[in-house]
Design a protein that fits this description.
The complex is a heterodimer.
Chain A: E1 2-11, E2 14-24, E3 29-33, H1 40-47, E4 55-60, E5 63-64, H2 70-75, E6 77-80, H3 92-96, H4 98-102, H5 107-120, H6 125-128, H7 138-150, E7 156-160, H8 168-185, E8 188-193, H9 196-202, E9 205-210, E10 213-218, H10 220-225, H11 230-239, H12 251-254, E11 261-262, H13 268-278, E12 282-286, E13 292-297, H14 298-304, E14 321-323, H15 328-338, E15 342-346, E16 352-357, H16 358-369
Parallel strand pairs in A: 3-8, 3-9, 6-7, 7-8, 11-12, 14-15
Antiparallel strand pairs in A: 1-2, 1-4, 4-5, 9-10, 12-13, 15-16
Helix pairs in contact in A: 7-8
Chain B: H1 3-45, H2 47-62, H3 65-76, H4 80-104, H5 108-116, H6 121-151, H7 164-173, H8 176-204, H9 207-225
Helix pairs in contact in B: 1-2, 1-4, 1-6, 1-8, 3-4, 4-6, 5-6, 6-8, 7-8
Chain lengths: 373, 226
């Protein structure tokens, strides 16, 4: 359990964090959100003493962080920074095991741990362990950044806008992944972002900060339903895509159109390449006229594919699919019932129009709740 | 004097001079670089000292070598140590300047990541800052080596050997052959040592940094093309 008690911080006489009180339960995913300069990053960094606090105290399991040696404290709190910050002179494995090395783990144990962690995010140890950060895509790099934070299995992970530098598709899949990991490993995560959509998607509880103070701390649904302050409503309205009221919504209103597609003549290896580039595990197959043919998944390629074979033979046609004119609710129901990652949206002419994911739904619902915002 | 006779007379002396010259260069670069690296590290740990020390060394650097050896000569006499002190002092500055700015300009995000991982200041230095500053440190060492090959010529001024001996004698006796005999090997030495260091740098720079430099320069040239 983490407790902020009347924590204050000022820079050159002007206060940036004003008497903050916040209690975070074990295993909770808390997202600090707010406009830039609201003090959210400072609040985060005071926890592992990267920024010293001026007044108040922060307790972890009843013990003040001020009483602990800052280096030892930091080794026991995972930390993921915005610009990823993998050490370019170290391999993937060395990067992951930086903290274990500080803690004097022997080589065998470090190797075992690196292997374990990489399995957690489906990165093959033999393929990636000896690569350097510059040989990885942005999404892969930040995955390693997350693993580095998890290396010694710290109960608390701090993340400072970790996905803001990534493209939308990669960001989406990393958000899913971090949420899954957090649940699976039962970590307490404190996550800073200025992106309301990200906060809604990830948080158990959103802490909205403004001008160094906490305006509201509430689960996403509650904050959406009854924002405590006009500032919050305005901020949410600005940051959530505007669309019509829910009962008029159909799939084409909420779908995402920037998606990774491939033509059926492409070979399996190109397909895998494309998947790793976009950080997805399936691609939508379309012919040259954008006619929807089906999807191809990494599992099928792995189990039945041969190198150099066109993906045509591996196309799955049973992927959940809706029409552009269909009600958005249908897409939502399919997503929930089939536990699918996305639903493909096609036009009446069977052309690919887009896909609907859980985050497109939450965006739509969010803005529907505040009308035109 | 016939060329044959000339060669017979000077061949052995030349070989000896080359070795002495090379010896001065290697030894003084080693001493100077070692001092420079220690200083650079200390200065980056305690930045306010750098405000005092950097200008001081900078001024020292502007004193012509000939004057410096002359002054030192008054104190330490006509001994190899005089040459070595002078050359080592001159070797410090280029390495110090490059290493200092190399360490100082390591991207803030790496330092923050290191700190966030619980590295102490010294661990950050050894695991992150020094490896990332290697290219810059090497640039300094390479510069020093090339400077020192020419400055070592001054050793002959106080009779301490090296290729300068030939040059001074050649100038004194108006014998171009002697001047060339000193100058050509010195030039070859500078080029050769430079090439050797380039090789060494490739070996010693962590592979990840080279890859990163390649990908960065590849990207920027790609952008330029468009």
């Amino acid at each position: 359990m983490i407790e902020y008690r009347n924590v204050t911080k000022s820079y050159g006489g002007s206060p940036v964090v004003k008497e903050i009180c916040l209690t975070i339960e074990k295993g909770e995913f808390v997202v600090l959100v707010g406009p830039s300069g609201c003090g959210k990053t400072t609040t985060l960094k005071m926890l592992n003493r990267l920024i010293p606090m001026d007044g108040g105290d922060i307790l972890i399991n009843g013990k003040s962080v001020k009483e602990q040696n800052p280096e030892i404290l930091r080794r026991n709190i995972g930390y993921v920074i915005q610009q990823i910050g993998l050490f370019p002179n170290m391999t993937v494995e060395q990067n992951i095991t930086v903290v274990p090395r500080m803690m004097k783990w022997d080589k065998e144990r470090r190797r075992k741990r690196a292997r374990e962690l990489m399995e957690l995010v489906d990165m093959d140890y033999d393929t990636y362990a000896n690569k350097y950060p510059s040989e990885l895509s942005g999404g892969q790099q930040q995955r390693i950044g997350v693993l580095r934070a998890l290396a010694v299995d710290p109960p608390v992970i701090l993340m400072d806008e970790p996905f803001s530098a990534l493209d939308p598709i990669t960001r989406d899949s990393l958000q899913d992944e971090i949420k899954r990991l957090q649940k699976q490993l039962n970590k307490t995560v404190i996550f800073v972002t200025h992106d309301m959509n990200e906060a809604i998607k990830l948080a158990d509880r959103i802490v909205f900060m403004y001008d160094g103070k906490i305006l509201q701390a509430a689960p996403p649904e509650e904050m959406l339903r009854s924002p405590a302050d006009g500032i919050i409503r305005e901020f949410m309205g600005k940051h959530v895509q505007k669309i019509r009221m829910e009962d008029e919504l159909n799939c084409s209103d909420i779908m995402r159109t920037r998606i990774a597609t491939i033509s059926p003549q492409r070979k399996t290896l190109e397909c895998v390449e494309l998947m790793s580039q976009y950080e997805v595990n399936s691609l939508v197959v379309v012919d040259d006229n954008k006619n929807y043919l089906g999807i191809v998944t990494i599992e099928d390629i792995r189990d039945h594919g041969e190198a150099g074979q066109p993906v045509e033979a591996l196309i799955r046609t049973d992927a959940p699919c809706v029409g552009t004119g269909q009600h958005a609710r249908d897409a939502f129901r399919i997503l929930v019932e089939k536990k699918a990652d996305y639903v493909v949206v096609v036009t009446p002419e069977n052309r690919l129009a887009g896909i609907v994911t859980k985050s497109s739904i939450s965006k739509a619902m969010a803005s529907a709740l505040w009308g035109e915002g | 004097m016939s060329l044959q006779h000339f060669m017979d007379t000077y061949a052995l002396k030349l070989l000896q001079a080359i070795f002495v010259h090379l010896g001065y260069v290697v030894l003084c670069v080693a001493i100077g670089s070692a001092i420079a690296l220690v200083l650079a590290v200390l200065l980056t740990r305690i930045p306010r000292f750098s405000k005092l020390i950097m200008p001081f060394l900078s001024i020292l650097q502007t004193i012509p070598g000939i004057v410096f050896i002359g002054i030192l000569y008054l104190y330490t006499g006509m001994r190899p140590i005089t040459v070595m002190i002078a050359l080592s002092v001159y070797a410090i500055f280029p390495v110090l300047k490059n290493a200092y700015s190399g360490i100082l300009h390591v991207d803030e995000k790496y330092k923050e990541a290191a700190k966030g991982c619980g590295m102490s200041s010294w661990q950050t230095l050894f695991y992150v800052e020094l490896p990332l500053a290697t290219p810059s440190i090497f640039t300094g060492i390479r510069m020093t080596v090339i400077y020192l090959v020419s400055w070592t010529v001054l050793a002959a001024m106080i009779g301490q050997g090296g290729l300068g001996e030939f040059i001074y004698r050649g100038v004194g006796t108006n014998d171009n052959r002697l001047i060339l005999m000193g100058a050509v090997p010195a030039a070859v030495m500078a080029i050769g040592l430079g090439a050797l260091l380039d090789k060494l740098q490739k070996k010693l720079t962590p592979r990840g940094i080279r890859l990163q430099e390649q990908s960065e320069s590849g990207q920027s040239s790609g952008k330029g093309g468009i």
